[in-house]
Every structure is written in C-alpha cells, then in structure tokens.
Amino acid sequence: MRYRIDLSYDGAPFCGWQIQASAPSVQEELEKALSTLLRSSIAVVGAGRTDTGVSASRYVAHFDFEGQVPEGVEREGAVDCKQLTYKLNAILPKAVAIQGIAPVAADFHARFDAVCRQYQYFLHRRKDPFLESRSFYFGYPDVDFDAMNRAAALLLGKHDFSCFEKSGGDNKTSVCTVYKALWEPYSPELCSFENAADLEPAPAAFSQSFFAAGAGSRPAANFGNGVIYWRFTIEADRFLRNMVRAIVGTLLETGRSRRSEQDFASLILDAPAPGSTPPAGKVSLRSNAGESVPGHALFLTDIRY
C-alpha cells in the first residue's frame, strides 16, 4: 500500500530534504520515525530537493508499507492514518510537522506526478529582529521593484536556466517552464516592528505615510521610497539546484541598477530543440549571473498534482 504524506518543516536545522552522509536532513528524520512506528525499514520519496536552510510550508512525500501493522497505529488490520500522524508528530523534531497521511493509488509519485511547484522568497527593508530567521534584510534605500518585475517577466515561458544552476549540478537538462515570477508587497503575520505600530496611535503627520496597501490581512509598511516587506513568488514545472536563490540575487542587482534589464535578459536562453546544442556565443554560465541570496528566507509553498 502506498501512502501520501503532507508535511511542513523549518529548514534551519537541516542540510535540506535529501539524506546526506554527515548532516541532518528532513528525509532521514522522517524515515527514522516511520521505521520506528511501523517496525519496518521505510524508504520515503519526496517531491524534490530543497537547499540547506530552505523551509517548506507545504511538502509532499510518499512511502510504501505492506507488513503487519503494529498495535497503536492499526485499525481493522490497516494503518490508522490519524494515529500515525499523531504519533509521528510526537517523536519527530519540532522543526517537522505532519499535516496528514492518506492512502493513494499504487502509481502515485510525489516527485514525478507534480506538475507545478511554487517558491516564495521573503525580504524586509527595515531591520527587524523578529524577521531575521525567516526573511532577508535588504536595507539599501533605493531599490526599483518595478524594474525587478519587468526583469522577472522575462523568466516566463520555457527557457534554459543554466546560468542560475549551481555548478556541478546533476540535472540532465537545464530547461524549465516558468509560469509565474512576481515581486509584491506582503504583510508579516507574526510579531514584528510592523505589528508593534498598532500598540499606540501614530502621530497624525506620520500615520498617512506609514502604511501602504499590500497583500494579506495587514497593511504592508512603507519605508523611504518603497514598501518594507516584499515577497517574490515563482512557479515552474521544475527547478534546478540553487535556481531560485540565484534568480533573486540577480534581480536585486537589477533593482539597484547594478545590472540592466537588457543584461538580465541576456542570461536567459531559449530552450534548445531536443538533441541540439546552443549556438556559439550563446552559452550562459553561472558566473554571469548574480550572487545567490541566503536560503533561510526561501520557502517551498505549494506543489500541484
């Protein structure tokens, strides 16, 4: 019987999803916990890799189990998914949470059946200690987010993204199809200085300029020439290693006028026909793109099947 697991995890304590020889991973913790509860060696297949420190608010995996169901997670001879979920959450590290487990078709595959994945990168422009663990502080005063969105629009479609792939990647192809790439204001939901602004009324001369309209249940705070809290959302059929972090870093160079929109466009190659090679002079190297931003502010937020 095959089972689907929906989970979320804080990537800070882990080297990523995939098992590594000498570093903790989410996959290793989940396999260890399942094997303990089901008293059988369980292999878990995930929807894909995530880089070191990257979190997932939604992640999907699957595992197979055909043995005798142990007491405590058994109901009428089958796995009691509700009890298994409860007991997994009791023994897994605090950084990993199981949202649900359910039986699925024998041919369901958490990785290969996924048709779209969504990542979001969070950025704040005013120093805020409450956001340091989940958002990237980018305190430069002049950042052109309109220029960044014009550049981001160039990512849409089917292209060769080799310039944004980590060197030494083992992908057979660097071609991906991007469906969405957009910077937009957002509002933090947890404690931050932005939330603290509501503790007492703002001065009349200040209150009109302090908030700017943004997504979410709270307004996005304004700072200097722009909104403080920004979120980059990108959706694609697949992603290369380090791809999102490299794209964000290169877009930020564009926003600071360190790189022109035309230069950004030159990094993105048309997808070559099957079996063909890029024309001479059209090879895009990782060194041509910008530096990768830190992984702690990157979240895998959706997987669609």
Would you kindly provide a written description of the structure presented here, covering whatever features stand out?
This protein has 305 residues and is of the alpha+beta class. The protein folds into two domains: 103 residues, 2-Layer Sandwich (Alpha-Beta Plaits), CATH 3.30.70.580; 189 residues, Pseudouridine synthase I, catalytic domain, C-terminal subdomain (Alpha-Beta Plaits), CATH 3.30.70. 21% of the residues lie in helices and 28% in strands. Strands 1, 2, 3, 6, 7, 8, 9, 10, 14, 15 and 16 form an eleven-stranded mixed sheet that branches. A hairpin with a 2-residue loop joins strand 4 and strand 5. Helix 1 packs across helix 2, helix 3 crosses helix 6 and helix 3 runs parallel beside helix 7. The longest helix is centred in the N-terminal third of the chain and has 13 residues. The radius of gyration is 22 Å and the shape is elongated.
* Count of domain modules: 2
SSE class: alpha+beta
Distance between the termini: 20 Å
CATH class of the largest domain: Alpha Beta
Annotation, overall tally of beta strands: 16
Number of helix segments? 7
CATH T-level fold name of the largest domain: Alpha-Beta Plaits
Query: What is the annotated CATH architecture of the largest domain?
Result: 2-Layer Sandwich
Helix content: 10-25%
Q: Residue ranges: pLDDT <50 for 5 or more in a row?
A: 191-225
